[in-house]
From TrEMBL:
Keywords: DNA-binding. GO terms for molecular function: DNA binding. SMART domains: HTH_XRE. This is DNA-binding protein. Residues 20-73 form the HTH cro/C1-type domain.
Amino acid sequence: MNRKDLDPEESPAAEFGVLLRRLRDERGWTQEDLGARMRVSGTHISAVETNRRPPTPQFARSADRALGTGDLLARKVRAVRNTSLLEGFPEFVKQEMAATEIMLFELGIIPGLLQTSEYAEAVTQGAVSRGAISEQQADERLTLLAKRQAALLREPTPFMYVVLDESCIRRLVGGPTVLAAQMDRLLEVANLPSVVMQVAPYDLGERRSFDLPVTLLTTRERTILAYAESAQQGLLERDYNAVRPLLTAYHQLQAEALSQAASKAMIEHVRKGIS
């Protein structure tokens, strides 16, 4: 039987899946054996063990009873439920950190991969102040972002195409000092030989291809993946029939957006106007 090996450090859900599989294997049980004791299907067990289905508190309590592990899994599932990361995002990050090309479009905020630490902290603290996430969850986000940014330094360096809606560079985040430093970072990144950066100006109007952020990744095998988020979850799309329209729309957006030279000039203009 083929077994999907998970990295327990990928996410709390992945850690839960690895632990559940280890506990089951130690008893010599199949997924169907454990499922029968929990009154769920073996397919359900498989989905949790391979991080295709998040464990619920009820599932964890039932697994503890079946495995005789006290409240071990029930305690572990709290970490899964308390994570600030959207479902689907950890798998996206794993693919992003190995991609050969990254194509980004963002609205209203600088993409995480290009954020300064001060800008990123301002964004997460804003979420904390609104009660959307806890301080612990903010730390989780910032730690993961630092790992994602560090992965960009790998060899060979991934090529990045970035299209920023004009709102990204106009929105005041963290105050003038933080925003000025963030504009400096954008200009620094735009000068890298591995980066093409463009701005989609407001006057693009209805010709802008996307109303939501989107990321397209090219894998080492030259497969193109697409990632997008709703308020509740993230979706990593692998089916090329679904990815192809997004890729076409991205190329159309690149054609309509400002050139890299004009985009850098706009960013420099915004930078000069920050007081």
